[in-house]
Amino acid sequence: MNTYHPHLLRTLPTLASALLAALTAPAVLAQDELPELVVTATRVPTPIEQVGSAISVISAEELQQRQIRVVADALRDVPGATVNHSGGAGGITEVYLRGAQANQTLVLIDGVEVNNPDGGAFDFSSLLNLEIERIEVLRGPQSVLWGSAAIGGVINIITRRAERTLQASAQLEGGSFATWQGSASLGSSGDNYDALLSGTWLNTDGWSSGSAWRGNSEDDGARVGTVQFKGNLRPSNDLKLNLIERYTDSRNDFDAFFGGDVRPVTDSDEYADNRQNLVRLQGKYTLLDGAWQHLLGIGRYDLDGKTYSFGMETFDGSTSSNQIDYQSNYFLNSAGAAHTFTFLIKDKEDEATNSYFASNSIHNTGVGFNYGLGLDEQLFLTAGIRRDFNDRFADANTYRLTAAYRWPDIGGRLHGSYGTAVKNPTLIELYGFSGDFQGNPNLQPEESTGYDIGWEQNLLDRRLRFDLTLFNNQIDNIIVGAGRSVINLPGESTSRGVELSANATLSEDLSATLAYTYTDTEDPQGEELIRRPRNQASLNLNYSAFEQRANFNLAVQYSGSSTDLAFDPITFISYPVTLPSYTVVNLAARYQVDKQWQLYGRVDNLFNEEYEQVLGYSGTERGVYVGARYQF
Q1: What are the chain's domains?
Q2: Phi/psi at 99 (nearest 5 deg)?
Q3: For 204-252, how does the pLDDT look when each residue is reduced to its tens digit (9 = 90+)?
Q4: What is the CB-side half-sphere exposure of residue 546 using CA atoms within 13 A?
Q5: What does the longest C-alpha to C-alpha distance in the chain come to?
Protein backbone atom coordinates (compact mmCIF):
# COMPACT_ATOMS: atom_id res chain seq x y z
CA MET A 1 0.00 0.00 0.00
CA ASN A 2 2.93 2.35 0.74
CA THR A 3 5.69 3.22 -1.71
CA TYR A 4 9.28 3.26 -0.41
CA HIS A 5 11.51 6.05 -1.71
CA PRO A 6 15.10 5.53 -0.44
CA HIS A 7 16.45 8.49 -2.43
CA LEU A 8 14.23 10.80 -0.39
CA LEU A 9 15.66 9.41 2.86
CA ARG A 10 19.23 9.91 1.63
CA THR A 11 18.58 13.59 0.88
CA LEU A 12 17.07 14.43 4.28
CA PRO A 13 20.39 15.07 6.12
CA THR A 14 21.56 17.33 3.29
CA LEU A 15 18.26 19.21 3.28
CA ALA A 16 18.35 19.62 7.07
CA SER A 17 21.89 21.04 6.89
CA ALA A 18 20.89 23.49 4.20
CA LEU A 19 17.88 24.68 6.21
CA LEU A 20 20.00 25.18 9.34
CA ALA A 21 22.63 27.14 7.41
CA ALA A 22 19.97 29.37 5.87
CA LEU A 23 18.36 30.08 9.24
CA THR A 24 21.64 31.09 10.86
CA ALA A 25 22.66 33.34 7.96
CA PRO A 26 22.34 37.12 8.35
CA ALA A 27 18.81 38.47 8.06
CA VAL A 28 18.00 39.92 4.65
CA LEU A 29 14.35 40.85 5.06
CA ALA A 30 12.81 43.91 6.59
CA GLN A 31 10.73 43.13 9.64
CA ASP A 32 8.49 46.22 9.67
CA GLU A 33 5.32 44.38 8.72
CA LEU A 34 1.74 45.27 9.50
CA PRO A 35 0.03 42.85 11.91
CA GLU A 36 -2.14 40.18 10.30
CA LEU A 37 -5.83 40.62 11.09
CA VAL A 38 -8.37 37.81 11.59
CA VAL A 39 -12.15 38.09 12.03
CA THR A 40 -13.34 34.60 12.92
CA ALA A 41 -11.95 34.49 16.46
CA THR A 42 -13.88 37.52 17.78
CA ARG A 43 -16.18 38.53 14.86
CA VAL A 44 -14.27 41.84 14.64
CA PRO A 45 -10.92 42.40 12.86
CA THR A 46 -8.24 41.55 15.42
CA PRO A 47 -4.44 41.25 15.14
CA ILE A 48 -3.69 37.55 15.21
CA GLU A 49 -1.13 37.96 18.01
CA GLN A 50 -3.94 39.25 20.27
CA VAL A 51 -6.09 36.12 19.78
CA GLY A 52 -6.20 33.54 22.56
CA SER A 53 -7.85 30.85 20.42
CA ALA A 54 -5.86 28.57 18.11
CA ILE A 55 -6.27 29.87 14.55
CA SER A 56 -4.55 29.30 11.21
CA VAL A 57 -4.74 31.46 8.09
CA ILE A 58 -4.26 30.36 4.48
CA SER A 59 -3.66 33.32 2.16
CA ALA A 60 -4.50 33.73 -1.51
CA GLU A 61 -0.76 33.72 -2.30
CA GLU A 62 -0.33 30.34 -0.60
CA LEU A 63 -3.24 28.95 -2.61
CA GLN A 64 -1.58 30.17 -5.80
CA GLN A 65 1.85 28.84 -4.86
CA ARG A 66 0.45 25.35 -4.26
CA GLN A 67 -1.96 25.66 -7.22
CA ILE A 68 -4.89 24.63 -5.05
CA ARG A 69 -7.97 23.93 -7.18
CA VAL A 70 -10.21 22.27 -4.55
CA VAL A 71 -10.24 24.10 -1.20
CA ALA A 72 -10.05 20.90 0.87
CA ASP A 73 -6.54 20.23 -0.46
CA ALA A 74 -5.29 23.39 1.27
CA LEU A 75 -6.81 22.30 4.60
CA ARG A 76 -4.57 19.21 4.68
CA ASP A 77 -1.72 21.49 5.80
CA VAL A 78 -3.61 22.96 8.78
CA PRO A 79 -2.70 21.68 12.28
CA GLY A 80 -5.60 19.78 13.82
CA ALA A 81 -7.43 19.24 10.50
CA THR A 82 -8.10 15.84 8.91
CA VAL A 83 -9.45 15.69 5.34
CA ASN A 84 -11.21 12.51 4.22
CA HIS A 85 -11.99 12.04 0.54
CA SER A 86 -14.29 9.23 -0.58
CA GLY A 87 -12.59 8.31 -3.85
CA GLY A 88 -12.86 9.60 -7.40
CA ALA A 89 -12.40 13.17 -8.61
CA GLY A 90 -15.73 14.35 -7.15
CA GLY A 91 -16.14 12.01 -4.18
CA ILE A 92 -17.61 13.27 -0.91
CA THR A 93 -14.94 15.23 0.99
CA GLU A 94 -15.26 15.99 4.70
CA VAL A 95 -13.06 17.81 7.20
CA TYR A 96 -12.62 16.89 10.86
CA LEU A 97 -11.15 19.44 13.33
CA ARG A 98 -9.44 18.15 16.48
CA GLY A 99 -11.04 14.75 16.17
CA ALA A 100 -14.62 16.05 16.10
CA GLN A 101 -17.10 14.68 13.58
CA ALA A 102 -17.32 16.34 10.16
CA ASN A 103 -20.80 17.67 11.01
CA GLN A 104 -19.33 19.21 14.18
CA THR A 105 -17.24 21.63 12.11
CA LEU A 106 -19.02 24.82 11.02
CA VAL A 107 -18.22 26.08 7.50
CA LEU A 108 -18.87 29.67 6.37
CA ILE A 109 -18.52 31.28 2.94
CA ASP A 110 -18.64 35.07 3.13
CA GLY A 111 -20.78 34.95 6.27
CA VAL A 112 -23.25 32.28 5.10
CA GLU A 113 -23.40 28.96 6.97
CA VAL A 114 -23.17 26.23 4.33
CA ASN A 115 -23.34 23.04 6.40
CA ASN A 116 -25.91 20.74 4.84
CA PRO A 117 -29.19 21.55 6.64
CA ASP A 118 -30.20 17.91 6.06
CA GLY A 119 -27.04 15.95 6.85
CA GLY A 120 -25.09 18.45 8.89
CA ALA A 121 -21.62 18.16 7.29
CA PHE A 122 -20.40 20.33 4.44
CA ASP A 123 -19.15 18.42 1.39
CA PHE A 124 -15.98 20.16 0.12
CA SER A 125 -15.82 18.15 -3.12
CA SER A 126 -17.36 20.90 -5.28
CA LEU A 127 -15.84 23.90 -3.47
CA LEU A 128 -13.36 25.19 -6.04
CA ASN A 129 -10.81 27.95 -5.43
CA LEU A 130 -12.73 30.77 -7.06
CA GLU A 131 -11.38 34.23 -6.09
CA ILE A 132 -10.65 33.17 -2.49
CA GLU A 133 -8.82 35.87 -0.53
CA ARG A 134 -8.15 33.90 2.66
CA ILE A 135 -9.26 30.92 4.72
CA GLU A 136 -9.35 31.14 8.51
CA VAL A 137 -9.47 27.91 10.51
CA LEU A 138 -10.49 28.48 14.13
CA ARG A 139 -10.17 25.45 16.40
CA GLY A 140 -11.92 24.48 19.62
CA PRO A 141 -15.55 24.88 20.84
CA GLN A 142 -16.95 28.11 19.31
CA SER A 143 -20.72 28.10 19.89
CA VAL A 144 -20.71 31.43 21.76
CA LEU A 145 -19.93 33.33 18.56
CA TRP A 146 -21.07 30.85 15.91
CA GLY A 147 -23.85 28.66 17.32
CA SER A 148 -24.58 24.99 16.63
CA ALA A 149 -22.06 22.73 14.87
CA ALA A 150 -18.94 24.61 16.06
CA ILE A 151 -17.71 21.83 18.38
CA GLY A 152 -14.48 21.12 16.53
CA GLY A 153 -14.16 24.67 15.25
CA VAL A 154 -14.98 26.97 12.35
CA ILE A 155 -13.68 27.14 8.77
CA ASN A 156 -14.32 30.64 7.40
CA ILE A 157 -13.79 31.19 3.65
CA ILE A 158 -13.56 34.82 2.55
CA THR A 159 -13.57 35.73 -1.14
CA ARG A 160 -11.85 38.77 -2.63
CA ARG A 161 -13.39 41.93 -3.99
CA ALA A 162 -12.44 44.08 -6.97
CA GLU A 163 -9.55 46.45 -6.24
CA ARG A 164 -8.87 48.32 -9.51
CA THR A 165 -10.87 50.61 -11.80
CA LEU A 166 -11.03 47.82 -14.36
CA GLN A 167 -9.65 44.33 -13.90
CA ALA A 168 -10.08 41.04 -15.71
CA SER A 169 -8.51 37.60 -15.80
CA ALA A 170 -8.85 34.32 -17.72
CA GLN A 171 -7.26 30.94 -17.08
CA LEU A 172 -7.22 27.58 -18.81
CA GLU A 173 -5.51 24.32 -17.84
CA GLY A 174 -5.61 20.70 -18.89
CA GLY A 175 -3.98 17.42 -18.05
CA SER A 176 -4.37 13.84 -16.89
CA PHE A 177 -7.71 11.99 -16.86
CA ALA A 178 -8.97 14.22 -19.71
CA THR A 179 -9.13 17.10 -17.23
CA TRP A 180 -9.97 20.63 -18.31
CA GLN A 181 -10.52 23.61 -16.05
CA GLY A 182 -11.13 27.23 -16.90
CA SER A 183 -11.97 30.39 -15.02
CA ALA A 184 -12.59 34.06 -15.74
CA SER A 185 -13.41 37.23 -13.83
CA LEU A 186 -14.33 40.83 -14.55
CA GLY A 187 -14.40 43.58 -11.96
CA SER A 188 -14.38 47.28 -11.27
CA SER A 189 -13.71 49.43 -8.23
CA GLY A 190 -14.28 53.10 -7.47
CA ASP A 191 -14.42 55.45 -4.51
CA ASN A 192 -17.93 54.36 -3.48
CA TYR A 193 -18.30 50.89 -4.95
CA ASP A 194 -16.64 47.67 -6.10
CA ALA A 195 -18.04 44.71 -8.01
CA LEU A 196 -16.52 41.41 -9.15
CA LEU A 197 -18.16 38.76 -11.34
CA SER A 198 -16.28 35.48 -11.65
CA GLY A 199 -16.79 31.91 -12.73
CA THR A 200 -14.97 28.59 -13.00
CA TRP A 201 -15.67 25.14 -14.41
CA LEU A 202 -13.97 21.76 -14.09
CA ASN A 203 -14.52 18.68 -16.22
CA THR A 204 -12.62 15.42 -15.77
CA ASP A 205 -13.01 11.71 -16.55
CA GLY A 206 -11.31 11.03 -13.20
CA TRP A 207 -10.22 7.67 -11.85
CA SER A 208 -12.08 4.83 -10.17
CA SER A 209 -13.91 5.82 -7.01
CA GLY A 210 -13.42 2.30 -5.67
CA SER A 211 -9.72 1.50 -5.17
CA ALA A 212 -8.13 0.00 -8.30
CA TRP A 213 -6.02 -2.48 -6.33
CA ARG A 214 -9.27 -3.97 -4.99
CA GLY A 215 -10.39 -4.83 -8.52
CA ASN A 216 -12.13 -1.64 -9.66
CA SER A 217 -11.30 -0.14 -13.04
CA GLU A 218 -14.20 2.07 -14.18
CA ASP A 219 -13.35 5.79 -14.23
CA ASP A 220 -15.59 8.05 -12.14
CA GLY A 221 -15.60 11.58 -13.48
CA ALA A 222 -16.80 14.92 -12.22
CA ARG A 223 -18.15 18.18 -13.60
CA VAL A 224 -18.32 21.34 -11.48
CA GLY A 225 -19.30 24.86 -12.46
CA THR A 226 -19.47 27.89 -10.16
CA VAL A 227 -20.52 31.50 -10.76
CA GLN A 228 -20.09 34.22 -8.14
CA PHE A 229 -20.91 37.90 -7.80
CA LYS A 230 -19.56 40.05 -4.97
CA GLY A 231 -20.32 43.74 -4.68
CA ASN A 232 -19.98 46.56 -2.14
CA LEU A 233 -21.71 49.94 -2.17
CA ARG A 234 -20.72 52.85 0.11
CA PRO A 235 -23.42 55.55 -0.06
CA SER A 236 -21.66 57.47 2.73
CA ASN A 237 -18.66 57.18 5.03
CA ASP A 238 -20.87 55.61 7.70
CA LEU A 239 -22.89 53.18 5.58
CA LYS A 240 -21.72 50.15 3.60
CA LEU A 241 -23.84 47.56 1.77
CA ASN A 242 -22.55 44.15 0.66
CA LEU A 243 -24.05 41.54 -1.65
CA ILE A 244 -22.65 38.07 -2.33
CA GLU A 245 -24.20 35.32 -4.44
CA ARG A 246 -22.51 32.04 -5.35
CA TYR A 247 -24.13 29.30 -7.46
CA THR A 248 -22.62 25.85 -8.03
CA ASP A 249 -23.82 23.05 -10.29
CA SER A 250 -22.03 19.70 -10.06
CA ARG A 251 -22.25 16.11 -11.17
CA ASN A 252 -20.01 13.33 -9.90
CA ASP A 253 -19.86 9.61 -10.62
CA PHE A 254 -19.46 7.18 -7.74
CA ASP A 255 -19.34 3.46 -7.07
CA ALA A 256 -21.70 1.25 -5.09
CA PHE A 257 -20.98 0.39 -1.46
CA PHE A 258 -21.62 -3.27 -0.61
CA GLY A 259 -19.72 -3.76 2.65
CA GLY A 260 -17.09 -6.20 3.81
CA ASP A 261 -13.37 -5.50 3.96
CA VAL A 262 -12.04 -7.14 0.76
CA ARG A 263 -13.95 -5.16 -1.88
CA PRO A 264 -16.40 -2.93 0.02
CA VAL A 265 -16.84 -0.60 -2.97
CA THR A 266 -17.60 -1.98 -6.45
CA ASP A 267 -17.73 -0.44 -9.93
CA SER A 268 -21.26 0.71 -10.80
CA ASP A 269 -23.12 3.18 -12.98
CA GLU A 270 -24.16 5.68 -10.29
CA TYR A 271 -23.92 9.44 -10.14
CA ALA A 272 -25.18 12.47 -8.24
CA ASP A 273 -26.42 15.86 -9.46
CA ASN A 274 -26.24 18.75 -7.00
CA ARG A 275 -27.04 22.45 -7.09
CA GLN A 276 -26.00 24.91 -4.41
CA ASN A 277 -26.83 28.56 -4.07
CA LEU A 278 -25.88 30.98 -1.32
CA VAL A 279 -26.82 34.63 -1.10
CA ARG A 280 -26.23 37.25 1.57
CA LEU A 281 -27.08 40.92 1.83
CA GLN A 282 -25.43 42.84 4.66
CA GLY A 283 -25.54 46.43 5.82
CA LYS A 284 -22.99 48.04 8.12
CA TYR A 285 -23.66 51.38 9.79
CA THR A 286 -21.23 53.18 12.12
CA LEU A 287 -21.79 55.92 14.69
CA LEU A 288 -19.57 58.01 16.95
CA ASP A 289 -16.70 58.22 14.45
CA GLY A 290 -16.61 54.47 14.06
CA ALA A 291 -16.75 53.59 17.75
CA TRP A 292 -20.19 51.99 17.47
CA GLN A 293 -20.91 49.54 14.64
CA HIS A 294 -24.19 47.92 13.61
CA LEU A 295 -24.27 45.00 11.17
CA LEU A 296 -27.49 43.46 9.85
CA GLY A 297 -27.34 40.48 7.51
CA ILE A 298 -29.88 38.34 5.67
CA GLY A 299 -28.74 35.11 4.02
CA ARG A 300 -30.01 31.90 2.49
CA TYR A 301 -28.39 28.63 1.49
CA ASP A 302 -30.10 26.12 -0.80
CA LEU A 303 -28.89 22.63 -1.65
CA ASP A 304 -30.80 20.39 -4.07
CA GLY A 305 -29.57 16.95 -5.03
CA LYS A 306 -30.52 13.80 -6.91
CA THR A 307 -28.79 10.44 -7.23
CA TYR A 308 -29.15 7.95 -10.06
CA SER A 309 -28.32 4.27 -10.49
CA PHE A 310 -28.31 2.70 -13.97
CA GLY A 311 -30.39 5.64 -15.24
CA MET A 312 -33.03 5.36 -12.49
CA GLU A 313 -33.53 8.11 -9.93
CA THR A 314 -32.86 6.72 -6.44
CA PHE A 315 -33.01 9.87 -4.32
CA ASP A 316 -34.35 13.41 -4.60
CA GLY A 317 -33.77 15.91 -1.82
CA SER A 318 -34.10 19.65 -1.27
CA THR A 319 -32.81 21.58 1.74
CA SER A 320 -32.64 25.24 2.67
CA SER A 321 -31.34 27.41 5.49
CA ASN A 322 -32.70 30.90 6.14
CA GLN A 323 -30.39 33.05 8.26
CA ILE A 324 -30.88 36.52 9.78
CA ASP A 325 -28.30 38.06 12.10
CA TYR A 326 -27.61 41.34 13.86
CA GLN A 327 -24.33 42.33 15.50
CA SER A 328 -23.42 45.45 17.46
CA ASN A 329 -19.80 46.34 18.33
CA TYR A 330 -18.75 49.13 20.66
CA PHE A 331 -15.08 50.10 21.04
CA LEU A 332 -13.78 52.08 24.01
CA ASN A 333 -10.15 53.04 24.67
CA SER A 334 -8.98 54.57 27.94
CA ALA A 335 -5.73 54.76 29.93
CA GLY A 336 -3.89 51.91 28.20
CA ALA A 337 -6.98 49.68 28.09
CA ALA A 338 -8.94 48.76 24.96
CA HIS A 339 -12.49 47.48 25.46
CA THR A 340 -14.66 45.74 22.85
CA PHE A 341 -18.31 44.97 23.55
CA THR A 342 -20.11 42.71 21.06
CA PHE A 343 -23.79 41.82 21.14
CA LEU A 344 -25.20 39.42 18.58
CA ILE A 345 -28.44 37.68 17.74
CA LYS A 346 -29.02 35.11 15.01
CA ASP A 347 -32.22 33.48 13.81
CA LYS A 348 -31.87 30.35 11.66
CA GLU A 349 -34.36 27.88 10.22
CA ASP A 350 -33.28 24.71 8.43
CA GLU A 351 -35.80 22.84 6.29
CA ALA A 352 -35.53 19.61 4.28
CA THR A 353 -37.71 17.54 1.99
CA ASN A 354 -36.67 14.31 0.30
CA SER A 355 -37.97 11.14 -1.30
CA TYR A 356 -38.46 9.41 2.05
CA PHE A 357 -40.09 11.97 4.33
CA ALA A 358 -42.23 15.08 4.04
CA SER A 359 -40.91 18.52 4.85
CA ASN A 360 -39.37 18.92 8.32
CA SER A 361 -37.61 21.86 9.91
CA ILE A 362 -35.60 23.05 12.91
CA HIS A 363 -35.78 26.64 14.12
CA ASN A 364 -33.14 28.17 16.41
CA THR A 365 -32.53 31.66 17.80
CA GLY A 366 -29.26 32.46 19.55
CA VAL A 367 -28.42 35.53 21.63
CA GLY A 368 -24.83 36.16 22.69
CA PHE A 369 -22.49 38.68 24.26
CA ASN A 370 -18.70 38.85 24.02
CA TYR A 371 -16.33 41.20 25.85
CA GLY A 372 -12.72 41.84 24.87
CA LEU A 373 -10.07 43.61 26.94
CA GLY A 374 -6.56 44.63 25.87
CA LEU A 375 -4.09 46.01 28.43
CA ASP A 376 -0.88 47.85 27.48
CA GLU A 377 -0.65 45.94 24.17
CA GLN A 378 0.47 42.86 26.12
CA LEU A 379 -2.48 41.14 27.81
CA PHE A 380 -5.64 40.32 25.85
CA LEU A 381 -8.72 38.68 27.37
CA THR A 382 -12.17 37.75 26.10
CA ALA A 383 -15.26 36.36 27.83
CA GLY A 384 -18.49 35.36 26.13
CA ILE A 385 -21.86 33.81 26.89
CA ARG A 386 -24.76 32.68 24.70
CA ARG A 387 -28.22 31.20 25.02
CA ASP A 388 -29.88 29.30 22.19
CA PHE A 389 -33.65 28.93 22.00
CA ASN A 390 -34.66 25.87 19.96
CA ASP A 391 -38.15 24.75 18.95
CA ARG A 392 -37.32 21.03 19.22
CA PHE A 393 -34.77 20.73 22.03
CA ALA A 394 -34.13 22.22 25.44
CA ASP A 395 -32.57 25.69 25.41
CA ALA A 396 -28.77 25.60 25.61
CA ASN A 397 -26.24 27.83 27.38
CA THR A 398 -22.63 28.08 26.22
CA TYR A 399 -19.64 30.18 27.28
CA ARG A 400 -16.04 30.84 26.25
CA LEU A 401 -12.92 32.42 27.81
CA THR A 402 -9.65 33.22 26.04
CA ALA A 403 -6.36 34.84 26.98
CA ALA A 404 -3.14 35.85 25.24
CA TYR A 405 -0.04 37.43 26.77
CA ARG A 406 2.90 38.80 24.77
CA TRP A 407 6.54 39.02 25.87
CA PRO A 408 7.94 41.35 23.18
CA ASP A 409 11.46 41.27 24.65
CA ILE A 410 11.82 37.54 24.02
CA GLY A 411 9.43 37.26 21.08
CA GLY A 412 7.12 34.87 22.93
CA ARG A 413 3.37 34.64 23.34
CA LEU A 414 1.24 32.50 25.66
CA HIS A 415 -2.30 31.78 24.49
CA GLY A 416 -5.17 29.66 25.72
CA SER A 417 -8.93 29.16 25.67
CA TYR A 418 -11.68 27.31 27.50
CA GLY A 419 -15.26 26.93 26.31
CA THR A 420 -18.33 24.91 25.56
CA ALA A 421 -20.34 24.16 22.43
CA VAL A 422 -23.51 22.43 21.30
CA LYS A 423 -24.48 20.52 18.14
CA ASN A 424 -28.14 19.92 17.29
CA PRO A 425 -29.13 16.61 15.65
CA THR A 426 -29.56 16.85 11.89
CA LEU A 427 -32.84 16.32 10.10
CA ILE A 428 -31.55 13.03 8.65
CA GLU A 429 -30.59 11.81 12.13
CA LEU A 430 -34.06 12.74 13.41
CA TYR A 431 -36.20 11.50 10.52
CA GLY A 432 -34.11 9.08 8.48
CA PHE A 433 -32.86 8.83 4.94
CA SER A 434 -34.36 5.70 3.42
CA GLY A 435 -35.83 2.34 4.25
CA ASP A 436 -32.31 1.24 5.21
CA PHE A 437 -31.81 4.10 7.67
CA GLN A 438 -34.50 5.07 10.16
CA GLY A 439 -34.26 8.32 12.10
CA ASN A 440 -34.51 8.73 15.86
CA PRO A 441 -36.81 11.65 16.86
CA ASN A 442 -35.75 11.23 20.52
CA LEU A 443 -32.17 12.34 19.94
CA GLN A 444 -30.70 15.07 22.13
CA PRO A 445 -28.06 17.68 21.14
CA GLU A 446 -24.39 16.83 21.49
CA GLU A 447 -22.50 18.97 24.01
CA SER A 448 -18.78 19.61 24.36
CA THR A 449 -16.29 21.20 26.73
CA GLY A 450 -12.80 21.94 25.50
CA TYR A 451 -9.63 23.83 26.27
CA ASP A 452 -6.23 24.48 24.76
CA ILE A 453 -3.00 26.16 25.84
CA GLY A 454 -0.07 27.04 23.64
CA TRP A 455 3.22 28.87 23.33
CA GLU A 456 4.28 30.82 20.24
CA GLN A 457 7.92 31.81 19.80
CA ASN A 458 9.67 34.05 17.27
CA LEU A 459 13.41 33.59 16.73
CA LEU A 460 16.19 34.89 14.50
CA ASP A 461 14.70 38.35 13.94
CA ARG A 462 11.25 36.80 13.40
CA ARG A 463 12.53 34.68 10.51
CA LEU A 464 11.51 31.55 12.42
CA ARG A 465 8.18 31.18 14.21
CA PHE A 466 6.76 28.10 15.84
CA ASP A 467 3.65 27.40 17.87
CA LEU A 468 3.06 24.41 20.14
CA THR A 469 -0.50 23.89 21.42
CA LEU A 470 -2.01 21.22 23.67
CA PHE A 471 -5.75 20.61 23.34
CA ASN A 472 -8.48 18.56 24.98
CA ASN A 473 -12.12 18.26 23.94
CA GLN A 474 -14.85 16.17 25.59
CA ILE A 475 -18.19 15.47 23.90
CA ASP A 476 -21.32 14.23 25.68
CA ASN A 477 -24.32 12.59 24.00
CA ILE A 478 -22.34 11.87 20.86
CA ILE A 479 -24.61 10.57 18.09
CA VAL A 480 -23.48 7.25 16.59
CA GLY A 481 -24.91 4.60 14.30
CA ALA A 482 -26.80 1.73 15.90
CA GLY A 483 -27.85 -0.89 13.35
CA ARG A 484 -30.08 0.95 10.90
CA SER A 485 -30.62 4.00 13.09
CA VAL A 486 -28.71 6.34 15.42
CA ILE A 487 -28.60 6.90 19.18
CA ASN A 488 -27.02 9.22 21.74
CA LEU A 489 -24.16 7.18 23.18
CA PRO A 490 -24.04 7.49 27.01
CA GLY A 491 -20.80 8.82 28.44
CA GLU A 492 -18.03 11.03 27.08
CA SER A 493 -16.01 10.92 23.90
CA THR A 494 -12.59 12.52 24.22
CA SER A 495 -10.10 14.00 21.80
CA ARG A 496 -6.76 15.26 23.05
CA GLY A 497 -3.46 15.96 21.43
CA VAL A 498 -0.74 18.30 20.28
CA GLU A 499 -0.59 20.76 17.38
CA LEU A 500 2.74 22.07 16.11
CA SER A 501 3.21 24.65 13.36
CA ALA A 502 6.39 26.37 12.17
CA ASN A 503 7.17 29.01 9.55
CA ALA A 504 10.70 29.80 8.43
CA THR A 505 12.02 32.49 6.10
CA LEU A 506 15.21 30.77 5.05
CA SER A 507 16.29 33.48 2.62
CA GLU A 508 14.77 36.19 0.50
CA ASP A 509 13.70 33.49 -1.97
CA LEU A 510 13.16 30.36 0.14
CA SER A 511 10.51 29.74 2.82
CA ALA A 512 9.17 26.68 4.60
CA THR A 513 6.12 25.75 6.64
CA LEU A 514 5.69 22.68 8.81
CA ALA A 515 2.63 21.27 10.56
CA TYR A 516 2.28 18.26 12.83
CA THR A 517 -0.69 16.96 14.79
CA TYR A 518 -0.96 14.15 17.31
CA THR A 519 -4.58 13.22 18.08
CA ASP A 520 -5.70 10.63 20.62
CA THR A 521 -9.44 9.89 20.40
CA GLU A 522 -11.67 7.59 22.40
CA ASP A 523 -15.42 6.97 22.42
CA PRO A 524 -17.35 6.19 25.65
CA GLN A 525 -16.65 2.48 25.09
CA GLY A 526 -12.91 3.04 24.91
CA GLU A 527 -12.63 2.55 21.14
CA GLU A 528 -10.69 4.84 18.81
CA LEU A 529 -12.86 7.15 16.71
CA ILE A 530 -12.81 6.21 13.04
CA ARG A 531 -10.85 8.05 10.31
CA ARG A 532 -8.76 10.08 12.80
CA PRO A 533 -5.07 9.31 12.30
CA ARG A 534 -3.02 9.68 15.47
CA ASN A 535 -0.16 11.27 13.53
CA GLN A 536 -0.33 13.74 10.66
CA ALA A 537 2.37 15.99 9.24
CA SER A 538 2.99 18.26 6.27
CA LEU A 539 5.97 20.18 4.90
CA ASN A 540 5.85 22.95 2.29
CA LEU A 541 8.94 24.43 0.65
CA ASN A 542 8.52 27.46 -1.57
CA TYR A 543 11.30 28.92 -3.73
CA SER A 544 11.28 32.01 -5.94
CA ALA A 545 13.81 32.64 -8.69
CA PHE A 546 14.62 34.97 -11.59
CA GLU A 547 13.73 38.10 -9.63
CA GLN A 548 10.50 36.57 -8.31
CA ARG A 549 9.22 35.74 -11.79
CA ALA A 550 9.46 31.99 -11.20
CA ASN A 551 8.05 30.06 -8.25
CA PHE A 552 8.51 26.42 -7.24
CA ASN A 553 6.56 24.63 -4.51
CA LEU A 554 7.12 21.21 -2.93
CA ALA A 555 4.41 19.81 -0.63
CA VAL A 556 4.82 16.60 1.38
CA GLN A 557 1.83 15.27 3.33
CA TYR A 558 1.98 12.33 5.72
CA SER A 559 -0.92 10.57 7.39
CA GLY A 560 -0.45 7.79 9.93
CA SER A 561 -2.62 4.72 10.11
CA SER A 562 -6.23 5.08 11.24
CA THR A 563 -9.25 2.94 12.06
CA ASP A 564 -12.33 2.61 9.88
CA LEU A 565 -15.41 0.37 9.99
CA ALA A 566 -16.31 -2.46 7.66
CA PHE A 567 -19.91 -3.66 7.51
CA ASP A 568 -21.17 -7.17 7.01
CA PRO A 569 -23.22 -6.92 3.79
CA ILE A 570 -25.96 -9.17 5.18
CA THR A 571 -26.30 -8.33 8.87
CA PHE A 572 -24.92 -4.76 8.57
CA ILE A 573 -22.93 -5.39 11.77
CA SER A 574 -19.76 -3.31 11.82
CA TYR A 575 -16.22 -4.28 12.81
CA PRO A 576 -12.96 -2.27 12.86
CA VAL A 577 -10.27 -2.40 10.17
CA THR A 578 -6.98 -0.51 9.84
CA LEU A 579 -6.19 1.93 7.03
CA PRO A 580 -2.39 1.99 6.50
CA SER A 581 -0.29 5.15 6.66
CA TYR A 582 0.71 6.98 3.49
CA THR A 583 2.80 9.89 2.15
CA VAL A 584 1.80 12.07 -0.80
CA VAL A 585 4.20 14.44 -2.59
CA ASN A 586 3.00 17.29 -4.84
CA LEU A 587 5.04 19.63 -7.05
CA ALA A 588 3.99 22.97 -8.56
CA ALA A 589 5.78 25.60 -10.65
CA ARG A 590 4.83 28.85 -12.35
CA TYR A 591 6.53 31.51 -14.44
CA GLN A 592 5.43 35.12 -14.86
CA VAL A 593 6.18 35.89 -18.52
CA ASP A 594 5.19 39.57 -18.19
CA LYS A 595 2.66 41.64 -16.26
CA GLN A 596 -0.24 39.91 -18.01
CA TRP A 597 0.80 36.34 -18.83
CA GLN A 598 1.65 33.47 -16.49
CA LEU A 599 2.49 29.84 -17.34
CA TYR A 600 2.23 27.08 -14.75
CA GLY A 601 2.20 23.34 -14.17
CA ARG A 602 1.95 20.82 -11.35
CA VAL A 603 2.15 17.13 -10.52
CA ASP A 604 -0.28 15.72 -7.95
CA ASN A 605 0.82 12.58 -6.06
CA LEU A 606 4.26 12.54 -7.72
CA PHE A 607 5.09 8.95 -6.69
CA ASN A 608 1.57 7.61 -7.34
CA GLU A 609 1.07 6.50 -3.74
CA GLU A 610 -1.81 4.05 -3.31
CA TYR A 611 -3.86 4.95 -0.25
CA GLU A 612 -7.35 5.17 1.24
CA GLN A 613 -8.78 7.78 3.58
CA VAL A 614 -12.13 5.96 3.69
CA LEU A 615 -12.27 2.17 3.47
CA GLY A 616 -12.64 1.00 -0.12
CA TYR A 617 -12.33 4.45 -1.71
CA SER A 618 -9.25 5.46 -3.66
CA GLY A 619 -7.09 8.45 -2.83
CA THR A 620 -5.90 10.87 -5.52
CA GLU A 621 -4.02 9.20 -8.37
CA ARG A 622 -0.98 10.77 -10.01
CA GLY A 623 -1.85 13.56 -12.43
CA VAL A 624 0.09 16.11 -14.49
CA TYR A 625 -1.50 19.47 -15.37
CA VAL A 626 -0.35 22.58 -17.26
CA GLY A 627 -2.05 25.89 -17.91
CA ALA A 628 -1.84 29.60 -18.65
CA ARG A 629 -3.34 32.68 -17.00
CA TYR A 630 -3.92 36.17 -18.44
CA GLN A 631 -4.88 39.18 -16.34
CA PHE A 632 -4.95 42.95 -16.45
Answers
A1: 6-19+38-631 (2.40.170.20)
A2: 80, -5
A3: 999 999 999 999 999 999 999 999 999 999 999 999 999 999 999 999 9
A4: 10
A5: 72
